[in-house]
Amino acid sequence: MAVLGIVTAGGMLMAKTQIMKAQDARRKQDLNLIQKALEHYYSDFGRYPEEALVEDCGGSGLDPYLEQIPCDPALKSAYDYVLLASGKAYALYAKLIWTKDPVVTAIGCQNGCGPGNAYNYGVASANMSVSSGAAEEGVQPECGGPGNWFCFSSVCSECCPGSNYRCNGSGTRCILDATCGN
């Protein structure tokens, strides 16, 4: 009976690992699909789209480049898209569940990447690295507190250091924006 219990527990653990790997494969595929759409958008408009279009999980903001914005398969939430204020570079982040995936180390995210180093996988425009820290462009918001600073996604000045700042789409950084304060 004990042997049967051990075999059953081992089988359940292997099944859980395979589910995690499958969800991570989906995350990687989703980011690659979004990346292709972003590059086509850039080719047409000379800049990458605003955060609100890309972080609209399930939305069609990138149509005709991508019919529907994919969502994280387990969390059902948007992937974190960080656009530099110039619109000329971006990084797109996800958190892989199977942390032993060799790609985590290969892209330099074993100690975290992206806003708050909260992610371990990402893709980026050719002129940016997901592990470079460039995704932290902008300044820290003024609402919240240590470990929980925030601003209101895509809103000008609120929780930012002045009227010429706009909160990024993920609510993690205040970025200079010439259209704010006018």
UniProtKB/TrEMBL annotation:
Pfam family, one: T2SSG
Lineage: superkingdom: Bacteria
Annotated ranges, domain Type II secretion system protein GspG C-terminal: 18-92
Record's protein name: Type II secretion system protein GspG C-terminal domain-containing protein
The organism of origin for this protein: Candidatus Chisholmbacteria bacterium RIFCSPHIGHO2_01_FULL_48_12
InterPro entries found in the cross-reference section: Pilin-like (IPR045584), T2SS_protein-GspG_C (IPR013545)
